[in-house]
Amino acid sequence: ARMAADRGKTPRYGSRFWPAVDEHLRGVRLTFEGRQEEAVAAFEKADEHLAYVGFRDGSLKLQNRLALAQLLREGGMEEEAEALEDAVRRINPDFLRESVRFRSPAAPAR
């Protein structure tokens, strides 16, 4: 009965985290399988579940957006990729800098 009463209410903090993790990991798997369009959709769905609230959710949102940006860039969607990286940079410039360094030690940090 309680679940029925809770339907339609705003989900409490954190209740959307695990569905986002599932979608993010699905995006990673699809990327490695070479199914980029499906991976982009999974990363976008994960992003919809996440907010910049708290370390756990915020960190996953940042990482998810960078994974999505990388796929978009590889697909020739440079402007969309740059917009996502700019959003990450505005939230946490160090996260973007370290992520770029981690992916490619020779890559210049912006």
- What is the name of the CATH architecture? Alpha Horseshoe
Alpha-carbon Rg, integer:
16 Å
Tell me about the largest β-sheet: none
- Specify the structural class: mainly alpha
Order of helices and strands: HHHHHH
Strand portion: under 5%
What is the general shape?
A: globular
Explain this structure.
With 110 residues, the chain is mainly alpha-helical. It is built from six helices and no strands. The protein is globular and about 30 Å long. The model is unreliable at 1-7 and 104-110 (pLDDT under 50).
Map the helices and strands.
Layout: H1 2-6, H2 17-32, H3 36-49, H4 54-74, H5 78-91, H6 93-103
Helix pairs in contact: 2-3, 2-4, 3-4, 4-5, 5-6
Compose a concise summary of this entry.
With 110 residues, the protein is mainly α. 74% of the residues lie in helices and 0% in strands. The relative contact order is 0.11.
